[in-house]
Amino acid sequence: QVQLVESGEGLVQTGGSLRLSCAASGRTFSAFDSAWFRQAPGKERDVVATISRSGASTNYADSVKGRFTISRDNAKSTVYLQMNNLKPEDTAIYYCAARPMAGGYNYWGQGTQVTVSS
Fold first, then answer.
1. Considering only CA atoms, which of 22, 18, 1 is closest in space to residue 110?
2. Residue 60: partners with Cβ closer than 8 Å, 6 or more residues away
3. Which of 16, 40, 55, 63 sits a CA distance of 20 to 30 A from 86?
4. How far apart are CA 87 and CA 64, in angstroms?
């Protein structure tokens, strides 16, 4: 089992920055691929960024490429999402997720709110 707790929620203006953190506890975090998802009101939950267990491989949704950066510190069992040049359409609840192998994400955090004002 892995427990995930997000932090870093906030309200920022368009063009601002925010960093989300996801602290993991339980099993060895370096054995898990990780990702950030988001869900805006009335919309489905979509993947924002993924990172391999070593941190060597990352992928991003087209809508955030060049603005968001996912990273991880396995020594601290933490995954980060640095969000720059935020836009109102980035407003959503952001979720951290992890999986021990290819396939669906098994473990989820409780979510953290990001609001970008115009």
1. 22
2. 48, 49, 68, 70
3. 55
4. 10
Quote the CA–CA distance of 26 and 18 in Å, as a whole number. Answer: 27
Q: Can you tell me the distance from the alpha carbon of 60 to that of 87, in angstroms, rounded to the nearest whole number?
A: 16
Torsion over CA: 61, 84, 29, 23 (sign):
negative
Residue 110, beta-bridge partner list: none
Bridge partners of residue 72, in order along the sequence:
79
Instruction: Give the whole-angstrom CA distance, residue 52 versus residue 20.
Output: 18
CB 94 within 8 A of CB 48: yes
Q: Which residues pair with 73 in a beta bridge?
A: 78
Classify residue 85 as left (phi > 0), alpha (psi -120 to 50) or beta.
left
Span 80-103, pLDDT tens digits: 999 999 999 999 999 999 998 878
